[in-house]
Amino acid sequence: MTESSFSAVPVSPNVWWVGARDWNVRNFHGYETNRGSSYNAFLVIDEKVTVIDAVKAPFMPEMLARISSVIDLAEVDYIISNHAEPDHSGGLPELIAAASPEKVFASAAGAKTLAAYYGLAGITPVKTGDSVSLGKGTVSFVDTKMLHWPDSMVSFYDRDNILFSQDAFGMHLAASPMWADECDPAILDCEARKYIANILNLQADRLISLLDAIPGLGLDIRIIAPDHGPLWRRDLDRIIGIYRSAAGQKPCKRALVAYSTMWHATEKLAAALAEGLIGSGIEVKICDLEVNDRSAVMTEVARSGLIAFGAPTMNNQMFPRMADVLCYVKGLRPKNKIGFAFGSYGWSGEGGKQIAAELEAMGAEQPEPVFQVKYMPSRDDLLKMKDIGRKLGAALAARCE
Amino acid sequence: MKKYVCEVCGYVYDPAKGDPDNGIAPGTAFEDIPDTWSCPECGAGKDEFTAQD
After folding, report:
1. Domain count, chain A
2. Range of the domain at A310
3. For the residues A323-342, what does the mean pLDDT come to?
4. Chain B within 8 Å of A207 (Cβ-Cβ)?
5. Are B7 and A109 within 8 A, CB to CB?
6. What is the mean pLDDT of residues A119-141?
7. Is-above-0.90 flag for pTM?
């Protein structure tokens, strides 16, 4: 091992953080990570020395250095892979080669996925109810299939009462405080909600079932250690509460007006719509898709009871950036929304109808028909649009009572 | 008629219920579902299903 300044950070009497912070990542497979991210990995010192999860491949020198600051890599007996996605498994082949562990554990689906990604063989599959003794403590496994991949599982180490929750209860946030209680709570709330909206929203029902099931698992959880962002040792109900509230997707008096524009016609309609909504007591966020990333828009969709999308028609299609965003949003299966489609066109006007069809596919209720104008809205058009905003605001307010 | 489980997400196809939302009438055996059908939960193909014991 070459000289390195990286050290492990103590988490609890027998557990160390040996992960990496990715301060400057801004695009995480299309998810805009304004505050960077971290790849958390853990070292458990027991009779069987165990590493839980790995990091993105380029960060392996950092992880290996952190482990080596505590114990020789050859001392590692077990590796547990809670999630096979490459931000947590990319370094596994290197870790296995360096440590030659006795056993590697993953879910049955995880074993298959790791074989497909890296050709890893001989992984011991585990499922809910299985546990492995590390000597003084025991790790038990809970399957969390589809939260958020088929292979996902969580592991609980009873000696230090830690739940290693992989992507659950995580967020993309690089911060030098390791503990959530040392971070700005407003930032935690914002990044956790963004994470849930963009990673877990399509499995919201399974997420709620898991949250409901946790108390019945009989685990005395005192620390939640996710694979991204800070760790939780105080007020665990806070992060669980954020997850529960976001997964519930209850209607709220907040509206998103998202639009694309070519010559400012749709932009003018968006502003008029927003004026009507604001006038009826609705909090509004306006997003021009030219400058707002799709993951930022999805975060607003998740926080809003009403989602209005407007775009011009271009080449007989909705403006392509709108198609990109709607494709992404639909895949994340938002629920309980009022929807509204609008736009501008020159001669054919397919765009607005295509947006309405996508809203329909999302199951959004559309109390107002598509509103489109030719070339540029007149003063009368803008007043009509403002009035539609008022009506939609009233419909949303009624839904929230 | 046997139930089939999606190995990817755990969805169970019950022939008694079928999958009417996707054009599979109640009473349809798994073997008689068209190959173009996919898991209503996760979208995996029919070949990802195995018979439930």
Report:
1. 2
2. 255-394
3. 98
4. no
5. yes
6. 97
7. yes
